[in-house]
Amino acid sequence: MISAQQNKQEEKELLLVFIDLQGQRTMTFNDFDKGFDLFINKEATEQEYIQLVDICTKTFSSISYQIKEILKMHQFELIKQIQQLEKTKLEKVVKYQSLMTETVYGQVDYSQDISNVKKELEELKMEINEKIQDLHCILADEYSD
Protein backbone atom coordinates (compact mmCIF):
# COMPACT_ATOMS: atom_id res chain seq x y z
CA MET A 1 0.00 0.00 0.00
CA ILE A 2 1.30 3.43 -0.95
CA SER A 3 1.63 5.87 1.89
CA ALA A 4 0.36 9.43 1.68
CA GLN A 5 3.99 10.61 1.66
CA GLN A 6 4.88 8.35 -1.27
CA ASN A 7 1.78 9.49 -3.15
CA LYS A 8 2.68 13.15 -2.54
CA GLN A 9 6.23 12.49 -3.74
CA GLU A 10 4.93 10.82 -6.93
CA GLU A 11 2.60 13.77 -7.56
CA LYS A 12 5.51 16.17 -7.09
CA GLU A 13 7.67 14.21 -9.53
CA LEU A 14 4.86 14.21 -12.12
CA LEU A 15 4.45 17.96 -11.76
CA LEU A 16 8.20 18.47 -12.18
CA VAL A 17 8.18 16.29 -15.31
CA PHE A 18 5.29 18.37 -16.65
CA ILE A 19 7.18 21.61 -15.99
CA ASP A 20 10.17 20.20 -17.88
CA LEU A 21 7.92 19.16 -20.78
CA GLN A 22 6.31 22.60 -20.77
CA GLY A 23 9.78 24.12 -21.09
CA GLN A 24 10.51 21.85 -24.04
CA ARG A 25 7.22 22.86 -25.61
CA THR A 26 8.07 26.55 -25.17
CA MET A 27 11.48 26.04 -26.81
CA THR A 28 9.81 24.18 -29.70
CA PHE A 29 7.31 27.02 -30.16
CA ASN A 30 10.24 29.47 -30.20
CA ASP A 31 12.02 27.41 -32.87
CA PHE A 32 8.77 27.18 -34.84
CA ASP A 33 8.31 30.97 -34.67
CA LYS A 34 11.91 31.70 -35.64
CA GLY A 35 11.73 29.26 -38.55
CA PHE A 36 8.52 30.81 -39.78
CA ASP A 37 10.05 34.29 -39.55
CA LEU A 38 12.99 33.09 -41.67
CA PHE A 39 10.58 31.64 -44.21
CA ILE A 40 8.31 34.68 -44.35
CA ASN A 41 11.34 36.99 -44.72
CA LYS A 42 12.65 34.76 -47.54
CA GLU A 43 15.73 33.76 -45.54
CA ALA A 44 14.67 30.09 -45.59
CA THR A 45 13.20 28.04 -48.40
CA GLU A 46 9.76 26.51 -48.37
CA GLN A 47 11.40 23.08 -48.12
CA GLU A 48 13.39 24.15 -45.05
CA TYR A 49 10.22 25.45 -43.46
CA ILE A 50 8.36 22.21 -44.25
CA GLN A 51 11.19 20.24 -42.60
CA LEU A 52 10.95 22.48 -39.53
CA VAL A 53 7.18 21.99 -39.36
CA ASP A 54 7.71 18.22 -39.51
CA ILE A 55 10.28 18.29 -36.69
CA CYS A 56 8.13 20.59 -34.52
CA THR A 57 5.02 18.49 -35.15
CA LYS A 58 6.84 15.35 -34.01
CA THR A 59 8.17 17.14 -30.94
CA PHE A 60 4.73 18.55 -30.04
CA SER A 61 3.20 15.10 -30.52
CA SER A 62 5.78 13.47 -28.25
CA ILE A 63 5.31 16.12 -25.55
CA SER A 64 1.53 15.79 -25.77
CA TYR A 65 1.77 12.00 -25.44
CA GLN A 66 3.97 12.29 -22.36
CA ILE A 67 1.60 14.78 -20.75
CA LYS A 68 -1.37 12.51 -21.47
CA GLU A 69 0.54 9.76 -19.68
CA ILE A 70 0.98 12.05 -16.68
CA LEU A 71 -2.75 12.75 -16.69
CA LYS A 72 -3.49 9.01 -16.76
CA MET A 73 -1.55 8.69 -13.50
CA HIS A 74 -3.07 11.74 -11.83
CA GLN A 75 -5.84 14.10 -12.88
CA PHE A 76 -4.17 17.47 -12.36
CA GLU A 77 -6.84 20.04 -13.22
CA LEU A 78 -4.28 22.79 -13.77
CA ILE A 79 -2.37 20.67 -16.29
CA LYS A 80 -5.63 19.98 -18.15
CA GLN A 81 -6.28 23.72 -18.32
CA ILE A 82 -2.77 24.41 -19.60
CA GLN A 83 -3.14 21.67 -22.19
CA GLN A 84 -6.35 23.24 -23.49
CA LEU A 85 -4.71 26.67 -23.64
CA GLU A 86 -1.71 25.21 -25.48
CA LYS A 87 -4.02 23.55 -27.99
CA THR A 88 -5.77 26.88 -28.61
CA LYS A 89 -2.39 28.60 -28.87
CA LEU A 90 -1.21 26.14 -31.52
CA GLU A 91 -4.42 26.70 -33.50
CA LYS A 92 -3.85 30.48 -33.32
CA VAL A 93 -0.22 30.09 -34.41
CA VAL A 94 -1.32 28.09 -37.44
CA LYS A 95 -3.95 30.73 -38.23
CA TYR A 96 -1.37 33.52 -37.84
CA GLN A 97 1.10 31.74 -40.10
CA SER A 98 -1.57 31.10 -42.74
CA LEU A 99 -2.64 34.74 -42.73
CA MET A 100 0.95 35.97 -42.88
CA THR A 101 1.82 33.59 -45.72
CA GLU A 102 -1.21 34.72 -47.73
CA THR A 103 -0.41 38.38 -47.03
CA VAL A 104 3.26 38.06 -48.04
CA TYR A 105 3.01 35.55 -50.88
CA GLY A 106 -0.63 35.82 -51.93
CA GLN A 107 -3.04 38.41 -53.26
CA VAL A 108 -4.87 39.45 -50.09
CA ASP A 109 -3.70 41.71 -47.25
CA TYR A 110 -4.80 40.29 -43.90
CA SER A 111 -2.95 42.87 -41.78
CA GLN A 112 -5.93 43.60 -39.52
CA ASP A 113 -6.67 39.91 -38.97
CA ILE A 114 -2.97 39.30 -38.28
CA SER A 115 -2.96 42.05 -35.68
CA ASN A 116 -6.01 40.52 -33.97
CA VAL A 117 -4.52 37.02 -33.93
CA LYS A 118 -1.20 38.34 -32.56
CA LYS A 119 -3.12 40.03 -29.74
CA GLU A 120 -5.01 36.80 -29.00
CA LEU A 121 -1.71 34.89 -28.98
CA GLU A 122 -0.16 37.33 -26.51
CA GLU A 123 -3.19 36.98 -24.22
CA LEU A 124 -2.98 33.19 -24.42
CA LYS A 125 0.74 33.25 -23.62
CA MET A 126 0.07 35.43 -20.58
CA GLU A 127 -2.70 33.10 -19.39
CA ILE A 128 -0.47 30.06 -19.85
CA ASN A 129 2.38 31.76 -17.98
CA GLU A 130 0.03 32.64 -15.12
CA LYS A 131 -1.07 29.01 -14.86
CA ILE A 132 2.55 27.83 -14.92
CA GLN A 133 3.29 30.32 -12.13
CA ASP A 134 0.31 28.90 -10.20
CA LEU A 135 1.81 25.44 -10.68
CA HIS A 136 5.14 26.62 -9.28
CA CYS A 137 3.31 28.08 -6.27
CA ILE A 138 1.48 24.80 -5.70
CA LEU A 139 4.79 22.95 -5.83
CA ALA A 140 6.32 25.35 -3.34
CA ASP A 141 3.32 25.32 -0.99
CA GLU A 142 2.05 21.76 -1.12
CA TYR A 143 5.05 19.68 -2.15
CA SER A 144 8.00 21.31 -0.44
CA ASP A 145 10.13 18.89 1.49
Structural description of this entry:
- The protein is mainly alpha-helical.
- The chain has one domain.
- It is built from 4 helices and no strands.
- Helix 1 packs antiparallel against helix 2 (46-73) and helix 3 (77-105) packs antiparallel against helix 4 (111-142).
- It is elongated.
Per-chain topology:
Elements: H1 4-40, H2 46-73, H3 77-105, H4 111-142
Helix pairs in contact: 1-2, 3-4
Distance between the termini: 21 Å
What portion of the residues fall into strands of 2 or more residues?
A: under 5%
SSE run: HHHH
- Structurally, the number of domains stands at 1
* Integer-rounded radius of gyration: 18 Å
Overall shape: it is elongated
How many strand elements?
0
The overall pLDDT, averaged over residues, is: 94
- Roughly how much helix do the residues carry, as a percent range? over 70%
Output the number of helix runs: 4
Low-confidence stretches: none
Pfam families: DNA_repr_REX1B (PF14966)
InterPro entries: REX1-B (IPR039491)
Keywords: Coiled coil
Coiled coil: 107-138
Name its key features.
single chain, 145 residues, mainly alpha, elongated
In short, what is this structure?
This protein is an all-alpha fold. The chain has one domain.
